[in-house]
Amino acid sequence: MTVIVGLEIHCQLDTATKLFCGCSTDYRDDLPNSHVCPVCLGLPGALPVLNGQAVALALRVAASLGAGVARRSAFARKNYFYPDLPKGYQISQYELPICLGGGIDIETEAGARRVRLTRIHMEEDTGKNVHDAHDDASLVDYNRCGVPLLEIVSEPDMHSPAEAAAYLRKLRAILQYIGVCDGNMEEGSLRCDANVSVRPKGSETLGTRVEIKNLNSFRFLQKALDYEIERQSGVLAEGGTIVQETRLWNDAEGRTFPMRSKEEAHDYRYFPEPDLLPLKLDPAWIEGVRQGLPELPGPRMQRFVDDYGLSVDDALQLAATPAAADYFEACARESKNPRASANWIMGDLAFVLKNSGKSIEESPVAPAGLAALIRTVDSGEISGKIAKTVFEEMARSGEAPERVIRRLGLAQVSDEASLAAVIDRIMESNRKQVAEYRSGKTKVMSFFVGQVMRETRGQANPQVVNELLQKKLAAD
Ligand code: ZN
Ligand code: MN
Fold first, then answer.
1. What are 31-46's pLDDT values in tens digits?
2. Helix, strand or coil for residue 161?
3. pTM, whole model, 2 decimals?
4. Cα separation values, 427 from 275, 352, 445, 452, 476, Å
5. Ligand nearest to the CA of 142
6. Nearest-ligand number for the alpha carbon of 153
7. How does pLDDT run across 284-325, given as a tens digit for each residue?
8. Which ligand is closest in space to the CA of residue 145?
9. End-to-end alpha carbon distance in the chain
10. Could you tell me the distance, in angstroms and rounded to a whole number, from the CA of residue 145 to the centre of ligand 1?
11. Under a CB-based contact definition with an 8 Å cutoff, are residues 400 and 364 in contact?
């Protein structure tokens, strides 16, 4: 079967106020219905005024995705009834969206590939229904009503759940890099709907597509697509036909359920929003936004490969968020050891962050601290093994590595005189092994190294130990 996937992503734009009124968008910790006004509640006579900052952020997105910006776009009313939509319609864009085209390059097993974008349009968010809040009642919170959204629609250019996840990951990274959206899927700042169809290999006719709504994590996206591909292939294999419909992923049961038959555009009775003028954009503004873009994830990833010698996989992981990329670069610069920086960040640091539920911005070890630790290893002050202990202690106490090393007496012993004394003692009490070595069984060398390390609690400089041992064991 050939799998065909297209994604529709809704992203909350990080503006201070809502799309058509002055209500604050910073409502998450506040009481329900405390960020509302006549405009976002859709009270009779209230008139919307477009938020210029939302348009500026939409232009940033367009520029970063190579999308064409329409000099003239327009808002439309999308009519439907639902309790979280007080006006009875959503102000969206329909015939004249703000952007057309563009694309996102993703890394696939077969190499890099481009997923084309169909369109990007602006629209307002809805409120939120809160079910079972009062035993048998559902309540509505309108705080989110009117928050600016960008709907980013891809062409059906993805052919596996892994490609869909790669696309979503890349898109999220770009949105975070350009500072338009925090990309938090759990909190709904980024929401994903997937259109998926299958058709027999070689067949030219498109299969009937099914839309799966609210896939609000990478895990849900992949699991729901896996399930849906199986289900549709099964139906076709038995000679059945796929019903065009909207389905929901139920993670507890590990399957999708029909939600409603797919609505058509005409069901929404779209018509131009009479309360808003068409949006006309000055080309100089569009160009200015393009010029002001920061480095994007793709070029930054490539730079990590070219300048720091990282593998593509490691570079992808480290460039995935601006915070991780900044952390890595600061650490690589200060330690002068990019390879070790990458290993620490993706290994021990990632482990500590995961266990404490912290993001890299909240890391208990700052890039400068990690860089200092790497330098103590590179200078031979401590071994790589001891460094792991020091790192754990740094993460726990927030101390600098030098302090931890001094406090716990962990500095590597490179002093030949004191190591020679340890070796003499060990040779004295292991005469049999000494004799074996001298009769040619040089494999017992590792036995002696182990003994020295045990005596010195792993703090002996292995290179010095090896040299001394070789000298002393060879001498008769
Ligand atoms: Zn309002
Ligand atoms: Mn939408």
1. 999 999 999 999 999 9
2. helix
3. 0.84
4. 93, 41, 11, 10, 12
5. 1
6. 2
7. 999 999 999 999 999 999 999 999 999 999 999 999 999 999
8. 1
9. 75
10. 8
11. no
